[in-house]
Amino acid sequence: MRAIRILFRSIRDAFKSVFRNFSLSIASIICITITLILVAISLVLSSNVNHFTASIEKELTIVVYLSNDIDSNKEKDIENQIRNMSSFESLVFKSKDEWKKEMQESLGELDSILEDMEDNPLFDSLLVKVKNVSDLSATTDKISEIDGVYSATYGKDSVDQMISIFRVIEKVALVIVIALIVVTAFLISNTIRLAIYARRSEIEIMRLVGTSNIAIKLPFEFEGLFLGILGSIIPVLLTIYAYILTYDFFDGHIFSHMIELVSPNELLFFISIILVIIGGVVGMLGSHHAVRKYLKI
Amino acid sequence: MKLIDIKDCSKVYKNGVTGLAGLDLEIDKGEFVFIIGQTASGKSTLIKLLYREEKPTKGTVIVGGINVAKLRNSKVYKLRRKLGVVFQDFKLLPKLTVYENVAFGLETLGLKASEIKPKVLDSLERVGLKDKIRVFPSQLSGGEQQRVCIARAIVNNPRLLICDEPTGNLDPETSKEIMDVIESINRDLGTTVIMATHDKEIVNRMKKRVITIENGVKVGDKMKGSYRVHESN
């Protein structure tokens, strides 16, 4: 029971302290708010970059041209062999007639030439998607070796280059997010330390009247937690408002339909939780370390 | 019956300054003892050893059965709960009211509010501040702040009250009032009082045991003593 009373007293004292040390609390909250806004911006940007690269990668397809001399049984056999590959994701059959029609529609000059041809010179084909883009090259090679396959291709050079650029972009985005989170953690923790430094005499007095270390630390830790959570409120609201506004303004896409934005429902809940956790946990840990310094443990 | 037993106690600080050199001292329960000496004589070192703000370099310091020299930093609170400390600069928590300052130590022990309230009010009544429970320290005079400090020190009925120059910042009239309060605590509650002071008038008037320290060495220890240096039994 005593432990519970000490816990509740700590929470009550932490609340009181936030208001009684109002100017210090406001300074801490403003610092936390500004740094968390930066984290929110970087999280929104990196999530959208990742979403964009992932959606482009999803569209990458191996085009498997089937020899013209195979029958439907052989065609089924090739399909099955591809389906049994570990990297297989999905497969669509596209007949040479469909190819011809598509080419006639998109390439106006060739329309008449293709129309004049008695036989369709194109190939029946299978459009294969793999689970992971890193398997594209190896899967294409394996498919090429199957008997009855005329050729298999995925636009090797340009796709490989694009994937490597995407990987770099993703890594840079990740590094920026992590660096910002580290800087934020440092800034929040330092602000709380400064606030506690100004109150170090309180800790000394608490020790003098026989307060145990845990009973000294708890109110400060709760105070750090409250300040962190309070500091995350504005960034969370601002992110929700600004992102929904941006999403609606662009109608979910930037540069016509090339870049699709992540839907607000998916993204905002995740970012809000992250911001509150960073604010609260870092505030609490910052307080913990700062108080420890004055406890002479 | 001994409350404090100090044997061959020396304290040398990291900068090489000697605070105490081979001090032997016994203080019984219920005694009122003045520690006097010039500035840097070692009396503050002795006071700090008693509430374990410092550790002896050599020897033993036993306070209420606890060997201070062997007490770890994380366990110091166990000693401090058995004693009350009054300082020259009061050391009150500025953001807490008078009531909250006095109740603070009891609250951190996890006592119920219904147990805390009568103790705090009794303690404030003893120092004559029962009508100022909702006031903040900054709204009190120096003498009143020192009374709050005394109320905080005695609220948990400690066996030992340590006073480090409690009248150092007060005028003679207020000092006398504070000394009357401290003396009544010693007389009525049987609390042992150890007081470091420079105040000759108080020491001479009260006729209590006086221990004189000079250069870290005890040079005088006299029952019903007065403020004189180099005085011995």
Record keyword descriptors for this entry.
heterodimer, A: 297 residues, alpha+beta, Alpha-Beta Plaits, 2 domains, 4-stranded antiparallel β-sheet, two-stranded antiparallel sheet, 10 helices, 6 strands, 73% helix, B: 233 residues, alpha/beta, Rossmann fold, 6-stranded mixed β-sheet, 27% strand, globular
Kindly describe this structure:
- The complex is a heterodimer of chains A (297) and B (233).
- Helices cover 73% and strands 9% of the residues of chain A.
- Chain A is built from ten helices and six strands.
- In chain A, the strands form two sheets. Chain A has a four-stranded antiparallel sheet with strand order 2-3-1-4.
- The two termini of chain A are 26 Å apart.
- Chain B is of the alpha/beta class.
- Chain B has seven helices and ten strands.
- In chain B, a hairpin with a 2-residue loop joins strand 9 (209-214) and strand 10 (217-222).
- Chain B is globular, with a radius of gyration of 17 Å.
- The model of chain B has no long low-confidence stretch (mean pLDDT 89).
- The interface between A and B is medium-sized, with 27 and 25 residues.
Briefly say what this structure is:
The complex is a heterodimer of chains A (297) and B (233). Helix content of chain A is 73%, strand content 9%. Chain A is built from 10 helices and 6 strands.
